[in-house]
Amino acid sequence: MAVIPVDLSGREYDVHVGRDLLEGAGRLARNFIRKQMVCVVADERAHELHGRRLETALMEQGHDVAWYLVPSGEASKSWNGLAQLCEWLLDKEVERGDHVFALGGGVVGDLTGFACAILKRGCGFVQLPTTLLAQVDSSVGGKTAINTRAGKNLVGAFHQPSLVLADLGTLATLPPRELRAGYAEVLKYGVLGDRAFFDWLSANGPAVLSLEEQPLEYAVSMSIAAKARIVAEDERETSGRRALLNLGHTFGHALEAETGFSDRLLHGEGVALGMVLAARYSARMGMIGDADADLVAQAVATAGLPHDLADLALDCDGQKLAAHMRHDKKMDAGTLPFVLLEAVGKAVLKRDVSLDDVAAFLDGQLRVA
Ligand SMILES: NC(=O)c1ccc[n+]([C@@H]2O[C@H](COP(=O)([O-])OP(=O)(O)OC[C@H]3O[C@@H](n4cnc5c(N)ncnc54)[C@H](O)[C@@H]3O)[C@@H](O)[C@H]2O)c1
Ligand SMILES: O=C(O)C(=O)C[C@@H](O)[C@H](O)[C@H](O)COP(=O)(O)O
Ligand SMILES: [Zn+2]
Description:
18% strand; two-stranded antiparallel ribbon; 369 residues; binds nicotinamide-adenine-dinucleotide; 2 domains; globular; binds zinc ion; seven-stranded mixed beta sheet; alpha/beta; binds ligand LNCXM5UN; Dehydroquinate synthase-like, alpha domain; Rossmann fold
């Protein structure tokens, strides 16, 4: 059991990591419940598997639960999904001082967080992440958003939760593919800023993916602590520090867009492949050697994650992927800074990258003739 503080003056909160936290939710979250009825927005599958535990815990503290179920999948992070959720929260008479609970993965967390950011110009929310990805990444740091026709997370807000309860027991029901996708974001923390953690994962990754108690808790806590540190330094991604958490995402989001935000490529899978591409592009720029890029690719491949762009068999060229990248939120006065590597364990933001060169690089990776 660990409690990791996110140290944001005026908006500080704790992230609890451990077992049976859903059973303890009524007690742990008592400061954030003011009424008899607690509104819980839940991923359909997370509700089916873990909803009863949460409901029992809240009922033990004398509360009733109003459930709002969100269909599983990235498509729920949409204008339509947002509108329906906001109307429901308004029907439930949620006030600014109330907290809405989000039970599920990053989709439900991002959607609920954004709805809470705009509902009556802002109400509170509590994150109850049930995927590895959501526990190590999306539930922490306050990025909330929906996807739009133009791309990933393009309408959203920074809105911090008041509490995060990452119950490791919920991960036992996660399909292996989703577990691996979440592991990509774990690996990201090592690649971007912590060579010792990267090396630890090289040795202990299989134990983490097998949900062995201690390695799992260590990996989740290390990831959250890394994210909490960066978020506390640069909450709104203005100094360039937080942008490092975007390692692999400029490539990854373009691939998610090109595959239609579908099951063909999960977010974590796009990040995994994106990290390999960022490493290979860093090597092309002479920032790291090919051996270091291979090391990143090998770590991704060993986890059973996609590591070769050609394997996706996309029907597009590098320019098409670069066109998706022009919607990236890091875009600054017409140029797109890229998160690249100076070493495995040291990411930097490079502002002098030519998108045409990236497109040519991607042609090579796609094996476009
Ligand atoms: N806000 C951020 O900082 C941030 C960070 C990383 C990713 N994200 C976003 O998070 C989303 C991806 O999140 P995700 O990977 O959690 O996906 P997800 O929310 O789609 O969940 C993945 C799948 O797991 C199922 N599921 C959830 N909990 C389960 C459980 N305990 N057992 C069995 N099945 C369960 C869901 O029904 C879904 O099918 C993307 O939209 C991504 O953009 C946001
Ligand atoms: O918290 C952050 O900052 C991140 O970049 C974490 C990412 O893993 C996450 O996918 C995030 O939503 C991407 O941010 P975006 O600003 O590129 O949408
Ligand atoms: Zn991500």
